Predict the structure of Transmembrane protein.
Amino acid sequence: MHQSILIKNDQFINFHWLSIIFDSYTNVIQFQSILIKKSIKNQKVRKYQIENIFRYKETNKNIFLIQYFRVSLQLRILWFAISYIFFASLFDIYQHKSLFFL
């Protein structure tokens, strides 16, 4: 299934890879719900757990997007911190290079 978003200047961005990931997520959730149905067949908590599985199955796309943006933000912050430390240490070495080359 091809999903695309229309932008202001009539350009389409294709999110085919996102739809593939979403489809694989839904397949995993369906398989897990089948396993849970089999494993908790004679328990009192069966109804509650299966309702939670189907509720998660409906919202897994939103959960994936939230996790994706959270991880990308963490990676951006980490990259900024590493580059800041690297360039600060380079500048420090450049300032005090007479100390290192005595």
